[in-house]
Amino acid sequence: MLDVIYRKTQAGLTEIQTRASGLSLKQRQLLIMIDGKTPAHALPMAMPEKDLVHKLLELEWDGLIERAGSLPPKTAATVAAPAAAPAPAAAPAVAAGSFSLGLNAVRISAGQVARIRSILHMTNQNHLSGELDEMIGEMENLVSVAEIERCIARYLAVMKGRGMESAAQTYLAQIRTVVR
Predict the structure, then answer these.
(1) Pick from 142, 145, 143, 172: which is nearest to 157 by CA?
(2) Three-class DSSP category at 46
(3) Scanning 22, 53, 60, 76, which has its CA 20 to 30 A from the CA of 36?
(4) This protein's superkingdom (predicted)?
(5) What CA–CA distance (Å, rounded) separates 1 from 41?
(6) Separation of alpha carbons 126 and 167, rounded Å
(7) What is the SS3 assignment for 67?
(8) What residues form DSSP beta bridges with 5?
(9) What is the pLDDT of residue 103?
């Protein structure tokens, strides 16, 4: 996620002029710094990586920024490796093929699905070289919790197979935040 290059959308440019969305100071500063050339990890924001990722996701979900590209895979791996955070100790282990969002609901909203797809898309591009593009594309019309969980289980199996289970746990925490 931090090797993604973002650019402002038309809504983002308008927000800078009008301040209509009521962004927090940090969100507004981040929006102003996004230039379509600088990868997220190089933005001069004084905040923990987790907060930066969260604020970038919020700006993207609100339609104020969009992905303009990312660093080449070799560079991205080199840049992202030192910044990778270990999985929280309380993160539940997930067996390949099984995953639960912990919801009692049968359906989730289209907005939640879009946010989950966004998280999976970023990690798919950054860590899996687009291996799951087809699956993520198919998620667009899914609203069944069971179908979403099957997709996430597949994603987890691929990440685990590549030795990236701790990174996957970090992204799962973001996904669980989206659905709660």
Answers:
(1) 172
(2) coil
(3) 22
(4) Bacteria
(5) 9
(6) 11
(7) strand
(8) 39, 69
(9) 63
**Residue 43, token pair as written in the block:** 């933005």
| CA distance readout (Å), 116 to 19, 35, 80, 88 | 27, 25, 21, 20
Q: What CA–CA distances, in Å, run from 13 to 4, 61, 70, 111, 118?
A: 19, 15, 21, 23, 21
d(C-alpha 111, C-alpha 84), whole Å? 28
- Listed by start position, the domains of the chain span 4-73, 90-179
**Residues sharing a CB contact under 8 Å with residue 50, sequence separation 6 or more, in sequence order:** 85
Instruction: Indicate if the alpha-carbon torsion angle 88, 89, 95, 99 is positive or negative.
Output: negative
Q: What is the pLDDT of residues 60-98, one digit of tens each?
A: 888 899 888 765 554 444 444 444 433 333 333 444 445
Give SS3 for 88: coil
pTM of the model: 0.48
Tens of pLDDT, residue by residue over 129-147, are 888 888 888 887 777 888 8
Measure the CA dihedral 112/116/122/123, to 10°. Answer: 160
Nearest to 79 by CA among 39, 131, 122: 39
